[in-house]
Amino acid sequence: MAKWTAFPHAGDYTFDAASLKKSWARLHQGDCEPLPKDADVLQAWVLFHNGDFQKAFDAGIKAGGDGITVANKAASMYATYLETKEKTKLDLFMEVAARAEAQQKDDPKNANAWYWQAYALGRYSQGISVAKALAQGLGTKVKNSLEQAIKLSPRHADAHIALAAFHAEVIDKVGSLIGGMTYGAKKDIGLTLYKDALKLHPGSAIGMIEYANGMVMLEGDKKMKEATRLYEQAAASKPLDATERLDVEMAKAELED
Fold first, then answer.
1. Distance CA 227, CA 71 (A)
2. What pLDDT does residue 178 have?
3. pLDDT, average across residues 189-218
4. What are phi and psi of 233, to 5 degrees?
5. Residue 158, Cβ neighbours under 10 Å: how many?
6. DSSP alpha helix (H) spans, 8-110
7. CA 220 to chain centre
8. Does domain 17-256 have CATH number 1.10.4100.10?
9. Kindly report the CA angle at 253 between 251 and 254, in degrees rounded to 5?
10. pTM for the full model?
């Protein structure tokens, strides 16, 4: 595997197993991933939270089992924020989706097996164009997987955000009539899901960013001021780990544009 682009703030986050355990509930408020019992899996998460995404990925794959989740999250976050080559990014997302689908078969009650498949397919869809992805049937797969993730883990804030984004993206691209009839996308459901996500994880910078984007997609420019306020809140958040730092920096960059 080619060397991944390094997290630009290497060394700023220095979790070890003990400190990660103490911060676990807060760091995993979004994805509800249980604290691993396996020391190797926990160590993979240490690498992930410190921003060493490639090592976290490798360690997760090597550990297997629940380690697949950290591998998928590491690859997904890396592809979303740090990979610059579009083809590499899309390939990473499709690999995550395939691994997550295999994980579902081994562990069907693992909410994050469903979530990471959906997340990866959703990002892949954005990469190739949502309209093209819908034509390939990916939209239904994303929606079904996210609904399953929420069914298995009702407090999974990140799955609520992703499902809200599905509703927003579909309506934005094909309109509410076709979106509703063909894909089950509804404006009111999308907005409710965003709000529910932020109730479940009020401090989520990515939740604020996605809600801001979705709000404008679903309700138009009249919501621009409110969306900007959400971006400002996200930019003012204090990140606890590498991924949160990337979320906050994305919000800051958007405000500067």
1. 32
2. 87
3. 97
4. -65, -45
5. 30
6. 17-27, 39-49, 53-63, 67-81, 86-106
7. 24
8. no
9. 65
10. 0.95
